[in-house]
């Protein structure tokens, strides 16, 4: 951390300024080793000529004023000034333009700057994102930066690996590498500048924005031609974090409760408190269930208590099924009872504008050390404990997928999909308003939960983006994390005052940072659910070589397109493997990739080509394209594929296999059979099976499970 930078920032604040002047920005850059052109501050026309002569012609002249942030708009920039006479005239012109633009502006003078250019114009900057905090940006720069929006983002501070990855993460990456014979940009210089901007904003959180645009990147280095630094009006507030051990202590009691109380339990059908009671009882929960209702002595055959304080013994979880107005008093009693988790089904809090009421219950929960799920949720399921703490329909198909949703409607869709597909789940959890427990807490639990092998989350926002990223980075080493982020089209952020800020005002920040963290992002609800259903049953690929085996040429073309769209690599088939495949397909078929066995082939052709694909170690994943024929009917194909895949997996040949089935309605039953036997298969689509395979690959790469 630089003492010189601290002095500059403190001086600006003492003067009531939120923007540094250009000379101050240069000093900050100098302190962090960020290259800028030679320059000086002229306070007279003669002084400007003296500086220009020393620097060397041509030069750039820029107004220096704490009150004029957009210099070009004020007529405060002249480029390519090539003589002493032009500098003298330019100085007077810029001062006059600035005074005409803002008669009351404080003018420090005119910056005389070395004229730089050549190479590529890029932008390097940083913003303070409301979700993720300090975020560094890199992309194409210059005057069209906000039009092209070819930019990528990472959390600050960055590692060398992060900054180098950013150079390859924009669409114009090939341009920087030296496309069409042009000299490549100095990657080391650019990477270093990106890192140093990240270090600057991490060291000084009061810096709200940094904008280096343009940065001229050539084969000989990188120079920031223009520097703009904005300070935040208020000092940043650090997000409080609960220690991991403390989170787990409460989450384990919430998901493995020995006793559950239902506050607002009812014997009357149609009441939420009745539905919760019935689901707990009929769902087979083996712990104690305590109905709480001051007007009843017995509910659904169980003794009822007027208050949770009257229940003998400990209680781990309290499910609230009472109106919002009665929640604070009931939560006080639950807290005094030592409850670990409060499941807040009631609505009527922040989602309706009752922010104060929500804050009140949050403070009560914190006072007693209670973790609160919700409010405004449908409850939660945890199948290993036969726990249906919800007013929705019960669900009992145990499996290894944990699903969470911020919306009750999405929660019901998750439930319906799970039921229709018989997808085994470990948990379904509503998070609602996320007044307390959020995705970070749930990921911390699912990370160490042996019953969970995959996590899928629908979210509309994140309370603590950095906390979420840290949790994801731990989990994805072992388990895929799938995210459906609602609101992709706009974040509703305030209009930013810099190029970097404007570029960060949409979903791109979420997309880049979540992807870099290892999240598998789903474009839609069905995609999220299909990824969750499919990824746990697919083996992890051991390389990038994907091979398509198809009975229809048209399907092969569409499957090839889908592979490209999903970032998969179609294998270049070597001559010996090509010859091996040709031995099994008719002369009018086509080897290569896709391998077209043609439509009239018997089951043996499918079996032989599939087995070859599974046994050759150079092939890492298979995409099967089937179409309905009387020679190999759908169920014959399904049973054959399931048998061959099972036999080869028993021999240690574990490769992902996905299938696209085209045909009459019989292909639906065939796909169900394949899914039941560990092969991902979809009818009437070439896109979906490949998208699922692409999702598996994205996770495997992020988890570091791919060789090399």
TrEMBL record:
Gene3D superfamilies: ATP-grasp fold, A domain, ATP-grasp fold, B domain, NAD(P)-binding Rossmann-like Domain, Succinyl-CoA synthetase domains
Keywords: ATP-binding, Nucleotide-binding
All residue ranges annotated as the ATP-grasp domain in the record: 26-62
InterPro entries: ATP-grasp, ATP_grasp_subdomain_1, CoA-bd, Ligase_CoA_dom, NAD(P)-bd_dom_sf, Succ_CoA_lig_flav_dom, Succinyl-CoA_synth-like
Single GO MF descriptor: acetate-CoA ligase (ADP-forming) activity
Record family assignment: In the N-terminal section; belongs to the acetate CoA ligase alpha subunit family.
UniProt-recorded name of the protein: CoA-binding protein
Taxonomic source organism: Herbidospora solisilvae
């Amino acid at each position: 951390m630089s003492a010189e930078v601290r002095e500059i920032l403190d001086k600006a604040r003492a003067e009531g300024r939120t923007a540094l002047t250009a000379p101050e920005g240069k000093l900050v850059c100098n302190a962090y080793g960020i290259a800028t052109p030679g320059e000086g501050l002229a306070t007279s026309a003669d002084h400007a000529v003296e500086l220009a002569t020393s620097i060397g012609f041509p030069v750039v002249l820029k107004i220096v004023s704490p009150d004029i942030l957009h210099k070009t708009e004020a007529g405060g920039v002249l480029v390519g000034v090539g003589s002493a006479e032009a500098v003298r005239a330019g100085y007077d012109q810029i001062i006059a333009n600035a005074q005409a633009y803002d008669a009351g502006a404080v003018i420090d003078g005119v910056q005389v700057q070395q004229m730089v250019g050549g190479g590529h114009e890029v932008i390097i900057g940083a913003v303070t994102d409301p979700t993720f905090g300090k975020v560094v940006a890199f992309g194409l720069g210059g005057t069209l930066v906000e039009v092209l929006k070819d930019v990528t983002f990472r959390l600050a501070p960055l590692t060398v690996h992060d900054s180098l990855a950013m150079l390859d993460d924009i669409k114009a990456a090939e341009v920087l590498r030296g496309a069409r014979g042009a000299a490549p940009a100095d990657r080391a210089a650019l990477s270093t500048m990106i890192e140093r901007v990240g270090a600057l904003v991490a060291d000084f959180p009061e810096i709200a924005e940094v904008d280096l645009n343009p940065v001229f990147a050539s084969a000989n280095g990188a120079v920031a031609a223009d520097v703009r630094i904005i300070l935040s009006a208020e000092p940043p507030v650090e997000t409080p974090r609960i220690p991991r051990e403390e989170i787990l202590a409460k989450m384990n009691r919430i998901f493995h409760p020995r006793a559950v109380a239902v506050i607002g339990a009812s014997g009357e059908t149609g009441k939420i408190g009745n539905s919760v009671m019935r689901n707990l009882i009929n769902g087979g929960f083996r712990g104690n269930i305590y109905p709480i209702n001051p007007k009843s002595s017995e509910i659904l055959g169980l003794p009822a208590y007027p208050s949770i304080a009257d229940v003998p013994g400990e209680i781990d979880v309290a499910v609230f099924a009472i109106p919002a107005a009665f929640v604070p008093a009931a939560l006080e009693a639950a807290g005094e009872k030592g409850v670990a988790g409060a499941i807040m089904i009631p609505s009527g809090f922040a989602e309706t504008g009752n922010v104060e009421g929500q804050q009140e219950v949050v403070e009560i929960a914190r006072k007693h050390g209670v973790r609160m799920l919700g409010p405004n949720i449908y409850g939660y399921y945890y199948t290993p404990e036969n726990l249906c703490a919800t007013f929705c329909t019960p669900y009992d198909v145990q499996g290894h997928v944990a699903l969470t949703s911020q919306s009750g409607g999405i929660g019901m869709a998750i439930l319906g999909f799970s039921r229709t597909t018989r997808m085994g789940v470990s948990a379904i959890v509503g998070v609602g308003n996320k007044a307390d427990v959020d995705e970070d807490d749930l990921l911390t639990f699912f990370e160490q939960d042996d019953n969970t092998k995959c996590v899928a989350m629908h979210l509309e926002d994140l309370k603590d983006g950095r906390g979420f990223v840290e949790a994801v980075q731990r989990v994805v080493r072992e388990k895929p994390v799938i995210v459906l982020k609602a609101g992709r089209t706009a974040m509703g952020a305030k209009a930013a005052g810099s190029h970097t800020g404007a570029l960060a005002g949409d979903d791109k920040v979420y997309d880049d940072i979540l992807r870099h963290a290892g999240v598998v992002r789903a474009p839609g609800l069905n995609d999220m659910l299909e990824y969750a259903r499919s990824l746990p049953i697919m083996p992890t690929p051991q390389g990038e070589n994907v091979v398509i085996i198809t009975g229809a040429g048209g399907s092969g073309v569409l499957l090839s397109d889908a592979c490209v769209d999903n970032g998969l690599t179609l294998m270049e088939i070597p001559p010996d493997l090509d010859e091996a495949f040709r031995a099994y397909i008719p002369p009018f078929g086509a080897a290569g990739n896709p391998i077209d066995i043609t439509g009239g082939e018997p089951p043996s052709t499918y079996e032989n080509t599939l087995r070859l694909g599974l046994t050759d170690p150079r092939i890492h994943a298979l995409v099967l394209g089937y179409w309905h024929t009387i020679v190999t009917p759908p169920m014959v194909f399904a049973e054959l594929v399931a048998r061959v895949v099972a036999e080869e997996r028993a021999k240690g040949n574990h490769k992902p296999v996905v299938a696209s089935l085209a045909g009459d309605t019989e292909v639906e039953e065939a796909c169900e059979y394949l899914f039941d036997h560990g092969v991902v298969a979809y009818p009437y689509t070439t896109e979906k099976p490949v998208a699922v395979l692409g999702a598996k690959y994205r996770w495997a790469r992020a988890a570091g499970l791919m060789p090399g």
